[in-house]
Specification:
7-stranded mixed sheet, 4-stranded antiparallel sheet, mainly beta, 0% helix, 120 residues, 11 strands
């Protein structure tokens, strides 16, 4: 069974930092691109960042650009989202996701989410 597990969330003051981790079991995460998304209370989901399987290409949403670098350690089968200069608007549940294509089928895997609360 494939599982993604996020960790590292918590309560932090504005301007603070957190590092989220996404670990995988049941698949070799290093074979796949990984995305982070978030959902704030009462709002729809928002894509945050993506990293390719090799870790050589990344892209982040304009709302977090320059603050949330994404990285990975394929030896540890883990993807990270470093969250710096956090703002109250960053408060959300953060999810990691990967898409596995095994032709002719595809499988979307999501973690259970980790809560990030930015408040003074």
């Amino acid at each position: 069974e494939v599982q993604l597990l996020e960790s590292g969330g918590g309560l932090v003051q504005p301007g603070g930092s957190l590092r989220l981790s996404c670990a995988a079991s049941g698949l070799t995460l290093g074979d796949y691109d990984v995305t982070w998304a978030r959902q704030a209370p009462g709002k729809g989901s928002e894509w945050v960042a993506v990293i390719n399987s090799a870790g050589t290409m990344t892209n982040v949403a304009a709302s977090v650009k320059g603050r949330f670098p994404i990285s990975r350690d394929n030896a540890k089968s883990t993807v990270y989202l470093q969250m710096n200069n956090l703002k109250p608007d960053d408060t959300a549940v953060y999810y990691c996701h990967t898409l596995v294509i095994q032709f002719p089928r595809s499988y979307n895997y999501w973690g259970q989410g980790t809560q990030v609360t930015v408040s003074s």
